């Protein structure tokens, strides 16, 4: 029998996960303006067993089923009837719900408002940022990480025909 982790342990395992173009764009008109198969596979593998904390717009763009992950939506509106996601009125409430669910970690998975809140939380010390080679005229952007973050490693992702090149960077927060 495994014991539930404490809030501090869950947050220590938690991370920001995002893909952006060279200008920091993460979306355009409620869509991701590129397709990258290997990055989507990596997203699934990295977030398996986690709670995904997302904003309402991001939630509305997700597949209807994301097995192996709990979805918590920060929203002021009710979720659709029959949704398996949980609603939270704030970032802090979403984190508390994730702890109640007994997950191993939280993946802060967008959009921009969720990323801003996670970047302000000194407990969040990891960020996985996939840089997509190209500029896509997005209208939603990833907030800058700030000087307290440094690159701890990177990995090039394989690209299929017609897909842009992509590199995943792991950033660690070096101070609060």
What does this entry look like structurally?
- The protein is α/β, with parallel strands linked by helices and 176 residues long.
- Helices cover 25% and strands 30% of the residues.
- It has a single domain (7-168), classed as Dihydrofolate Reductase, subunit A.
- It is built from five helices and ten strands.
- A hairpin with an 8-residue loop joins strand 9 and strand 10.
- The longest helix has 11 residues, at 37-47.
- The chain is globular and about 40 Å long.
Percent helix, as a range, is 25-40%
Major sheet details: 8 strands, mixed
Extract low-pLDDT stretches: none
Task: Tell me the radius of gyration.
Answer: 16 Å
By DSSP (H or I, 4+ residues per run), the number of helices equals 5
**Gross morphology:** globular
For the record, the CATH class is Alpha Beta
CATH fold topology: Dihydrofolate Reductase, subunit A
Mean pLDDT: 95
State which percent range the strand residues make up.
Answer: 25-35%
Name of the CATH architecture? 3-Layer(aba) Sandwich
**Ends distance:** 35 Å
Order of helices and strands: HEEHEHEEHEHEEEE
The named CATH superfamily:
Dihydrofolate Reductase, subunit A
